[in-house]
Amino acid sequence: MAEDKISHYDIGTRVVVSLNHPQEAIVYLLGYGIYVSDEIPDESAVGQLADHCRKMGKLNPKIVLDDGRHVYGSEVFWGDAAQLETLFASRQIVHCDLDDERQKARDLNTPLFGSQEPDMASILLAAKEKASKLHG
After folding, report:
1. For residues 1 and 99, what is the distance between their CA atoms, to the nearest angstrom?
2. Based on CB atoms within 10 Å of each CB, which residue in 18, 68, 92, 109 is the most buried?
């Protein structure tokens, strides 16, 4: 393995991508894909780590999902699909849409991997709406 390699997975590894740790009782799943490269996250990537990588020119694992969209390791939890599938058998799986979750994260100014928490999302959206009404 090269010293400058970011991930301990090989490029070309089939991976699963979720918005929370796969050991949680409920897994918010974005889907399956392939770890394709290490790149500076483009503007589609959300969160402070993605912003930092762009600003500092730092590479981050890029994953192309089966539907053709891409996500960066800084935005999500991800790992080898074969290793995680047995774990998922005992979890409740909630399928999430990448674009919807990125927009929610932008609206809430949170990382993508925190945007699926429904109670927190509701609280933050209500506070944001109340603040905008108060400040016109």
Report:
1. 33
2. 18
